[in-house]
Write a structure and sequence with these properties.
Blueprint lengths: L13 H13 L1 H7 L10 E5 L40 H8 L16 H4 L2 E3 L9 H6 L5 H19 L1 H10 L1 E5 L2 H7 L7 H4 L2 H21 L4 E5 L8 H6 L9 H24 L4 E5 L26 H19 L1
Parallel strand pairs: 1-2, 1-3, 3-4, 4-5
Helix pairs in contact: 1-13, 3-13, 6-7, 10-12
The structure holds 2-acetamido-2-deoxy-beta-D-glucopyranose.
2-acetamido-2-deoxy-beta-D-glucopyranose binds next to loops.
InterPro entries: GDSL, GDSL_lipolytic_enzyme, SGNH_hydro_sf, SGNH_plant_lipase-like
Protein name: GDSL esterase/lipase
Family: Belongs to the 'GDSL' lipolytic enzyme family.
Length: 332
């Protein structure tokens, strides 16, 4: 369902991009110093979530949701790695900007071992969500299982590098979490799991935010401290939804965008609460949209989307700037 690349006329607002640029510029000096061949500023980048950050885990699991074939990876050395993009994903750019490898390997990729994962690892799985039911739609890795892999990773890391070093890596790594879109687009609004009967959309937002809080608390208890959690983008503007929005003349689905904005407000409040509750937790919300200018999707940029769901590398690089800047701010 998500496989055919097409360059739909879409969707982000120039304002969104400018806000991210502004955020990047604030810490721009530090970001520049961190990039290049210098000593890494953190020991590792550790990633959880869905296709926005899955670098290849779905290649080796029994799901139809894969992207390890051309034209995916068209502009990537190594070709179609399982990234849902023509090139690299945000965690790859974040890793490179922090002085770590330019590609963050997928935990289940047999081509990599614990020595590689010691500087960066991705547990994310395309199609996953905060709701267990979302991962079940396409038989992908649910978030609780990503956490189980994280525990296993820590055991392997301790064996490989020693307990103290493993603890250092886990405590000082930057964590990138990006998940949530599928809970709405592949689950709630696809009407496949019954969630739409069980919850109003506001109740479902609350349910997802509670799951996110559980997840963020679980990785805190496992030692994570510097964590970025991305909000939702303009989910009503992905090409698939625009195509389905026949009544709206193929424009963005504004109802979905409003749901994303409301959800983001709740996520921000949850993050503020966790920061207050969990000592030493440097948890930051990543704003993928601009709240003030509500996602005007008229400034179509045909290069925004690579397939019916996923942005191009150019946009991923852009998202990564904001995440890198916020990550650096968490180190202070
Ligand atoms: C999701 O599934 C896991 C594993 O079965 C379970 O521990 C957890 O309680 C479930 N979460 C919810 C909200 O049902």
């Amino acid at each position: 369902m998500l496989m055919a690349p097409h360059h739909a006329r879409s969707s982000t607002s120039a304002t969104v991009l400018m806000v991210l640029v502004a955020a990047a510029v604030v810490v721009g000096g530090a970001a520049a110093a961190a990039s290049g061949k210098k000593k890494p500023v953190v020991p590792a980048v550790i990633v959880f979530g869905d296709s926005t950050v899955d670098t290849g885990n779905n290649n080796v699991i029994g799901t139809v949701l894969k992207s390890n074939f051309p034209p995916y990876g068209r502009d990537l050395q190594g070709g179609a790695t399982g990234r849902f993009c023509n090139g690299r994903l945000p965690p790859d750019f974040v890793s490179e900007a922090l002085g770590l490898p330019p590609l963050v390997p997928a935990y289940l990729d047999p081509a990599y071992g614990i020595e590689d994962f010691a500087t960066g690892v991705v547990f994310a799985s395309a199609g996953s969500g905060l709701d267990n039911a979302t991962a079940s739609v396409l038989a992908v890795i649910p978030m609780w299982k990503e956490v189980e892999y994280f525990k296993e990773y820590q055991r392997r890391l301790a064996k490989h590098a020693g307990r103290a070093r493993a603890r250092h890596i886990v405590a000082n790594a930057v964590y990138v979490v990006s998940v949530g879109t599928n809970d709405f687009l592949e689950n709630y609004y696809l009407l496949v799991t019954g969630r739409f009967l069980q919850f109003t959309v506001a109740e479902y937002q609350d349910f997802l935010v509670a799951r996110a809080a559980e997840f963020l608390t679980a990785i805190y208890r496992l030692g994570a401290r510097r964590v970025t959690f991305a909000g939702l983008s303009a989910i009503g503007c992905v090409p698939l939804e625009r195509t389905l929005n026949l009544l709206g003349g193929g424009g963005c689905n504004e109802e979905y965008n409003q749901v994303a904005r409301d959800y983001n407000v709740k996520v921000k409040a949850m993050i503020a609460r966790l920061r207050a509750e969990l000592r030493g937790y440097r948890l930051a919300y990543i704003n993928v949209c601009n709240d003030k200018s509500p996602l005007t999707c008229d400034d179509a940029d045909k290069y925004f989307f690579w397939d019916s769901f996923h942005p191009t590398e150019k946009i991923n690089r852009f998202f990564a700037k904001g995440t890198t800047a916020v990550s650096l701010s968490l180190l202070r």
